[in-house]
Write a structure and sequence with these properties.
By secondary structure, this protein is of the alpha/beta class. It has one domain: Trna Endonuclease, Chain: A, domain 1. The protein has six helices and five strands, in the order ααβββαβαβαα. It has helices at about 5-45, 50-65, 105-115, 135-140, 150-160, 165-170, and strands at about 70, 85, 90-95, 120-125, 145. The relative contact order is 0.14. Keywords: Membrane, Transmembrane, Transmembrane helix. InterPro entries: Restrct_endonuc-II-like, Restrct_endonuc_IV_Mrr, tRNA_endonuc-like_dom_sf, Type_IV_Methyl-Rstrct_Enzyme. This is Restriction endonuclease type IV Mrr domain-containing protein. Pfam families: Mrr_cat (PF04471).
């Protein structure tokens, strides 16, 4: 009985190796994603301790990283919007709420009114926390977009935000970010 080793090597190359490579790539991607999620959650703990103005600056950085043109509305009387972002033709008024408690109706009302003040087509409230049922209902009726903690985490994962980046944004207060 003659045994041809080339048949085994062909079999391994065709039927065994490709699935092993696919499994290896999937495992690497899962490990990378898990690491990214861990870093973003660590970043969220930093964000939870920011001052309001630093949270606004962080959102400015985040929106720019996501490809938006973004500007702060100014200090003091912001007329219900902390940032104005633009992608394509549409401007959006953004109210930033770095809170230790749920965000209520007032934020939705303020940013909705600010659409006219800043000549925006859309309005959005972004928080590190959650929204009350009433705020979600009002936002649904007025078309205000809400980003709660979970949405913010998903966006930060997409933008590859790390604690180091959050720290850099906080430390560079005077650089025009």
């Amino acid at each position: 009985m003659d045994f041809d080793i080339s048949l085994i090597s062909d079999y391994l190359l065709i039927y065994v190796l490709p699935p092993l490579v696919v499994v290896w790539i999937i495992l690497l991607l899962l490990l990378y994603r898990k690491r990214k999620i861990r870093l973003v959650k660590k970043s969220m703990s930093l964000i939870d301790n920011l001052e309001g103005k630093d949270f606004e600056r962080f959102l400015l950085f985040l929106f720019r990283k996501l490809g938006y043109k973004a500007n702060l509305t100014g200090r003091g009387k912001d007329q219900g919007a902390d940032l104005i972002i633009k992608k394509g033709l549409f401007r959006t008024a953004v109210q930033a709420k770095r809170y230790n408690h749920t965000v209520g109706n007032a934020a939705v009302q303020q940013v909705y009114a600010s659409k006219k003040v800043y000549n925006c087509r859309k309005a959005m409230v972004v928080t590190n926390n959650r929204f009350t049922r009433e705020a979600r209902e009002l936002a649904r009726k007025t078309g205000v977009v809400l980003w709660d903690r979970e949405k913010l985490i998903r966006v930060m994962i997409k933008a590859s935000i790390t604690p180091k980046i959050v720290g850099k944004v906080i430390m560079n207060r005077g650089d025009g970010i």
